[in-house]
Amino acid sequence: MDREVIILKSRDEIEKLRRSNIIVAEVLEILKEKVESGISTMDLELIADEEIRKRKAIPAFKGYRNYPFCLCTSVNEEVVHGMPSKRKVLREGDIISIDLGVLYDGFYGDSAVTVPVGEVSEEAERLIRVTETALERAISRTREGNRLMDISHAVQEYVEGEGFSVVREFVGHGIGRRLHEPPQVPNFGVPGRGVRLKEGMVLAIEPMINAGKSDVRVLDDGWTAVTVDGRLSAHFEHSVAVTSKGPYVLSRL
Description:
Blueprint: H1 11-34, H2 41-54, E1 58-59, E2 71-75, E3 78-80, E4 95-104, E5 107-116, H3 122-140, H4 148-161, E6 165-166, E7 172-174, E8 181-185, E9 202-205, E10 208-210, E11 216-218, E12 225-227, E13 233-235, E14 238-243, E15 246-249
Antiparallel strand pairs: 1-4, 2-4, 3-12, 4-5, 6-10, 7-8, 7-9, 9-14, 10-13, 11-12, 14-15
Helix pairs in contact: 1-2, 3-4
């Protein structure tokens, strides 16, 4: 990882990234309000597409490596990259991860949330809470002078201490004029290792956490990753800039 070319962003570029991420955050808030029993993941996709275009932005995922949708909608045991479908109708007790990226004024925004559908099980509620808290702990380590694996370890230590497991096949990433830039940001690792964090780095940090074992597999659609044991998975993501004043969460309203 130390040999990767990491692009440091100027203050002006970070503010452009902020504007892109604000669009992502606004659309995710709208989608969260729409999540209820009886709505399909394709309904959410259509809402997202309309709201992105209202804001003069471009869906970042649509067409990326031939992915056909604006959103990734991952339900229950689906970890990431779930594909919207009219046939996938949400029911009371489900949980859904909604992952969204946009391109605006030459810069990308990227964020994800996991939302309960009505009343959910105690395990589902706790999984969501632990995953979101893991993200906040990772963000708190996103400081100038720290090492990349300090972020990764913050997720792993907390999540495993809560009895859940960290997905290892999928990781966070740098973000800027490209959706995925160096460095990769795993959700596991040894603290004190990896590149030193510098002002101007912008990272999309995204814990993907399983209720059961960490093993995942990809379905025949070539995109949807699911837990091998069929247990629940949750996913949260923020795009975060390293600044001299500490972490700047670009995708938070």
